[in-house]
Each structure stands twice: as structure tokens, then as C-alpha cells.
Design a protein that fits this description.
With 99 residues, this protein is mostly beta strands. It has a single domain, classed as Immunoglobulin-like. It has no helices and 8 strands. The protein has a 4-stranded antiparallel β-sheet with strand order 1-6-3-4, with no helix packed on it. It has a two-stranded antiparallel ribbon with strand order 2-5. It is elongated, with a radius of gyration of 17 Å.
Length: 99
């Protein structure tokens, strides 16, 4: 996978989990990104509505048994000790990534 050179990158994640008891309220995922471009819960597109560092998953979109959440996101490279870091070497001009 080649990530774009510059301040931003995009990615996606798929989270699979099994519910053995239906929650009484929405559940949350932690998210330290900047923007969610697209989100699906069990194959149904849903409006991403995250606040701070939490993404709510509506109780009504969940089902007993296997569930799947897919998120396509945009984020900035970081340089504060958290997340994905980017460094462009002034000698060779190449971008190096590390966590």
C-alpha cells in the first residue's frame, strides 16, 4: 500500500464483533481521526456522527450475533507520539512512516 506524500492519508477499517446480548443504548467506537468519509453498519450506509473521539453505533442498526462496521476515514499524519507519523528526509526526499 502506498500512502500519499504530504500531511493527509486515507484508510479503512473493518470491525467484526458478536453480540450475545442487545445493548440498552447505542455503543461507541474510539476514533482519533479527523474525518469519516463513509461508514457502514451491517452493510447499511449510515451517517457518521462522531464527537470528540467517539463514533456512535446506533442500537437499531445492531443485531444479535455477528455484526460488522466498516469505516473509510481521512486523517492527518501526527508528530506528537500518537498515531501514524510522517517524516520527509531532506537528503533523499523520501517520506518515511512510523508508529
Amino acid at each position: 500500500m502506498v500512502l500519499p506524500k504530504g500531511a493527509w492519508y486515507t484508510g479503512f477499517t473493518t470491525i467484526n464483533f458478536k453480540l450475545v446480548k442487545m445493548p440498552s443504548a447505542d455503543i461507541w467506537l474510539d476514533f482519533r481521526g479527523v474525518k469519516i468519509a463513509n461508514m457502514k453498519v451491517n452493510g447499511q450506509e449510515t451517517q457518521p456522527n462522531f464527537k470528540g473521539q467517539q463514533v456512535p453505533i446506533a442500537r437499531g442498526s445492531l443485531k444479535m450475533g455477528q455484526n460488522q462496521v466498516t469505516i473509510h476515514f481521512c486523517n492527518k499524519y501526527r508528530n506528537d507520539g500518537n498515531g501514524l507519523h510522517s517524516y520527509v528526509d531532506s537528503v533523499d526526499g523520501l517520506q518515511y512512516l512510523y508508529t
